[in-house]
Amino acid sequence: MAETETDLDAYAEAAAAMLGLAVEPEWRETIVVNLRVLRAAADLVGAFPLPDEAEAAPVFTA
User: Fold this and answer.
1) 60 pLDDT band (50/70/90 cuts)?
2) Average pLDDT, the chain
3) Helix 5-19 / helix 28-47 crossing angle, nearest 10 deg
4) Is residue 60 part of a domain?
5) Domain membership flag for residue 62
6) Residue 23: inside a domain, yes or no?
């Protein structure tokens, strides 16, 4: 199910309340835009095909 802008706005409001953050009204649209970008990045990661035999690396190095 695709999220709507209303869902993202409600999520931002609920997350701010849970964390005890006061969000100025002028920042709300910026927060929703950021959530939209993060959702798109998460969709890319979630859609990446991994073989069943893939294992998590115990140590990550660059």
Assistant:
1) confident
2) 90
3) 110
4) no
5) no
6) yes
Nearest alpha carbon to residue 38 among 62, 10, 13, 3: 3
Cα 6 from chain centroid? 15
% of the chain exceeding 70 in pLDDT: 95
The answer to whether position 14 is within a domain reads yes
Following DSSP, what letter does each residue of the chain receive, concatenated?
-PPPHHHHHHHHHHHHHHHT----GGGHHHHHHHHHHHHHHHHHHHHS---TT----SS---
Mean pLDDT throughout 40-46?
94
> Domain containing 12: what range?
8-46
12 in Cβ contact with 32 (< 8 Å): yes
Q: Report d(CA 4, CA 16) in Å as an integer.
A: 18
The total of structural domains in the chain comes to: 1
